[in-house]
Known about the structure:
This protein is mostly helical. The protein has helices at residues 8-22, 30-37, 41-47, 51-76, 81-93, 105-112, 119-141, 147-164, 170-192.
Amino acid sequence: MLGPMPSPKERILVAAGDIFARQSISSATLDEIVASAGTTKMALYRHYEGRDDLVASWLSAVAAKSEERWRWLAETHTNDPFAQILGWTRFMATRLPSPTSRGCPFVNVAAELQASDHPAWAVIRRHRQVVLGHIERLLEDAGVADPSRMARGIMYLIDGAQGNAPGASSDVVAADLIHMVTLLIDAEAGKRS
């Protein structure tokens, strides 16, 4: 049995996300989004103030899915903070830019934004702080001496992988990312054994 039909607001957000995942936000037109959603511009403006609001709403939805992944990692790797961090790293490695993927939505949108007051910036900054907070708390739980610095280092590795994947083989960059985070974790685990 089929579930209820998604609302126009939900259809617009899904359509926008599909389009933003394939092409730049500046090249995606509202006409293209509403056509893909099977609705009208009037419906779009009933729920969103415009493209900027739609981009911020889409990133908020992506951030909510990210939180679901963190919850899943916590349930899957209960009492194993390092396994949760490695699980996150592996997930991020699958999201690197490649010939078939534009990569991380937050990185892509941040690279495109011209205006410092664009509403998406608040979502991007908040998401980054939330992810950094998850990693830092897990490192703290694992007994790492300087969890803040190591959390930032892991984020730098992920950022570097995001930036290098388009000019290299994303598979190689993904394997290197996982390897480097594993080395950091192994070094910390070795200090406590």
